[in-house]
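Researcher: We plan to redesign the surface later, but first we want a full-length starting point. Tokens attached.
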């Protein structure tokens, strides 16, 4: 980005919005490598514009302006307008859970999740699932990168989320799933005896998203049918997005 101040402003917005709570100037400086005087000017302008709220003397969190931008984008973008009704209708007919998501800046971004309001935090779309815990992320990255790059990203995600004890077991399973996606074009995962997940990548506009069916009671499911239905939905989503663009 040619405008360096604007680039730093976006970095500050991203860091504040991604934080689990109020973030201080010192923490922003350490994370972004931006000097304190520049951070002070940027945050002051963002507070004045209504995008950032000053929680205390030197701590900041998202304000209504930033939340409004996110809500407006979700309602005005043709992606959720096209995708959400189709996924909703499909999973309701099949009696399973479903989701559609993409990856931006190494973070999973949900456009739709049928169990969004069955979570502890039911005041918004649950969008902070770590990459290493996401089947959709595995399916998407398997289309974009080679195996070594993918494992490096997931290793970073494990460390960032302080899940050190899970490195080897998680990475071994992720490696197997990545190979399955690259060979077969979809992800199929059984987690224990009950939980299961099917994810197909959806290509659109030069990028990849993922549509997922998941749930429990694995022993009662007809996975041949669910694989067919998820593949069919992925194809229909791609066609609908192309027509809408």
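Model: Full-length starting sequence:
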């Amino acid at each position: 980005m040619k405008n360096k101040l604007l680039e730093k402003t976006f970095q500050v917005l991203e860091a504040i919005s991604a934080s689990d709570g109020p973030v201080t100037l010192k923490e922003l400086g350490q994370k972004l490598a931006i000097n304190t005087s520049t951070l002070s000017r940027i945050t002051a302008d963002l507070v004045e514009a209504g995008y950032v709220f000053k929680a205390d003397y030197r701590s900041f969190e998202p304000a209504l302006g930033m939340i409004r931008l996110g809500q407006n984008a979700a309602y005005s973008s043709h992606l959720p307008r096209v995708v959400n009704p189709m996924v909703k209708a499909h999973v309701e007919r099949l009696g399973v859970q479903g989701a559609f998501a993409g990856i931006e800046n190494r973070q999973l971004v949900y456009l739709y999740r049928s169990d969004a309001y069955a979570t502890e935090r039911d005041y918004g779309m649950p969008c902070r699932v770590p990459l290493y815990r996401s089947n959709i992320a595995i399916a998407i990255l398997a289309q974009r990168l080679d195996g070594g790059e993918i494992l490096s990203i997931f290793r970073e995600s494990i460390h960032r989320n302080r899940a050190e004890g899970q490195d080897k077991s998680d990475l071994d399973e992720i490696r197997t799933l990545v190979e399955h996606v690259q060979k077969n074009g979809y992800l199929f995962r059984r987690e224990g005896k009950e939980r299961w997940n099917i994810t197909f990548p959806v290509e659109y506009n030069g990028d990849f998203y993922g549509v997922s069916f998941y749930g429990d009671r694995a022993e009662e499911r007809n996975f041949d049918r669910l694989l067919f239905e998820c593949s069919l939905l992925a194809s229909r989503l791609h066609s609908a997005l192309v027509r809408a663009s």
